[in-house]
Amino acid sequence: MSHATISQSISIVHPISLSHGKNAEVWDTTGKRYIDFVGGIGVLNLGHCHPGVVEAIREQATKLTHYAFNAVPHAPYLQLMERLSAFIPVGYPVSGMLTNSGAEAAENALKIVRGATGRTVVIAFDGAFHGRTLATLNLNGKVAPYKQKVGVLPGPVYHLPYPSADNGVTCAEALKAMDRLFSVEIDVSDVACFIIEPVQGEGGFLALDIEFAQALRRFCDTNHILLIADEIQSGFGRTGQRFAFSRLGIEPDLILLGKSIAGGVPLGAVVGRKPLLDNLPKGGLGGTYSGNPIACAGALATLDAMTDAHLKTWGSQQEEAITRRYHAWRTQGLCAYLGRMTGVGAMRGIELVNADGTPASKQLTQLLELARDAGLLLMPSGKSRHIIRLLAPLTIEPAVLEEGLDILEACLRQLA
């Protein structure tokens, strides 16, 4: 199928064309089957065409396909926000708004914090990814390819090292960099918010240092700075809990949601402390498609499936399978390029490195091709595109997960 009418600025990882899918399996237009460890880049925690989500979408499509909520409210939006507010594991009253995507949630969060604080400075982190819109590009902790040729970006935004056991940056090093930032670059009283991923996605599935997260929460409280947690990729059960910030022992002021919120239908949200969400003038928030009824129906069905018991079981089963196989590969000396395993729960990355510890980006590109030819779809991550990110649906059948890991093992063995 020709791509002549598609912008060549869109980078395609796998040059195939999909036809249909079921749970963790997809088929291309030639009929070839693949095991899907990409999951629409973290969108399909419940797999392709989850029966409950499909039925909810089908039923809603017979009732009301669209209405702009800011023109006339509709029941699915109201029902979803009520359910979401109960689903967010914080101790304060939750308010929020629905958006079309995670990036749009981030954009609206920036408006909210500006309105609430009267400040404009944002602190983000190296390796971060918050979207491809103009404002979120500035938050991203990586230039290529997202910021290249775009010109001056909205600001001001500053970046700090992201501390994680997965990248070797310690809590002390990050706090030292933060102290320097406020001593040399910017007055702390000008800072509106910090925005951080509890587990970096695009950055390589790096889990945030718990000590740093708690120190950051205290610093924000002391200096009247808001803390935004970007749970767009790490949320909705990816780490075995509802949201990854719970493992850090903190409560963010605002939380960004997206990806797996609606079982594959475009939807996002920004939720958090009610006074923050209510601070802008009437009409300051909203959108034509934001909280579309069909997307809301998909999200309501998603929440039905995501009980704490299900999330714990799905997360622990997938984590156990991945870590067991990874440690066996290390013990066997399966592959000369096999580096560290990153992440937490079922949000796992596998690093490929050369003998001198430098990123083995070439080998990861080779691995993507080998695995695709063998019927397994993988996705790269990390600054140097040298970390495999494993995003199989949480609902993947154990036998299919093992089959996919068998393929990955065979392909790792072939790397040269």
Features:
416 residues; alpha/beta; seven-stranded mixed sheet; 12 helices; 18% strand
Your description of this structure?
The protein is an alpha/beta fold and 416 residues long. It contains twelve helices and 17 strands. It has helices at 39-42, 51-61, 75-87, 102-117, 134-139, 171-185, 210-223, 274-277, 293-305, 308-332, 361-374, 398-414, and strands at 18-22, 25-28, 33-36, 94-99, 121-125, 157-160, 191-196, 199-200, 206-207, 226-230, 254-257, 268-273, 338-344, 347-352, 376-377, 379-381, 387-390. It has a seven-stranded mixed sheet, with helices on both faces. A four-stranded mixed sheet has the order 1-2-3-15. Strand 16 (379-381) and strand 17 form a beta hairpin. Helix 2 (51-61) runs antiparallel to helix 9 and helix 10 runs parallel beside helix 12 (398-414).
Briefly summarize what is shown.
The protein has helices spanning 39-42, 51-61, 75-87, 102-117, 134-139, 171-185, 210-223, 274-277, 293-305, 308-332, 361-374, 398-414, and strands at 18-22, 25-28, 33-36, 94-99, 121-125, 157-160, 191-196, 199-200, 206-207, 226-230, 254-257, 268-273, 338-344, 347-352, 376-377, 379-381, 387-390.
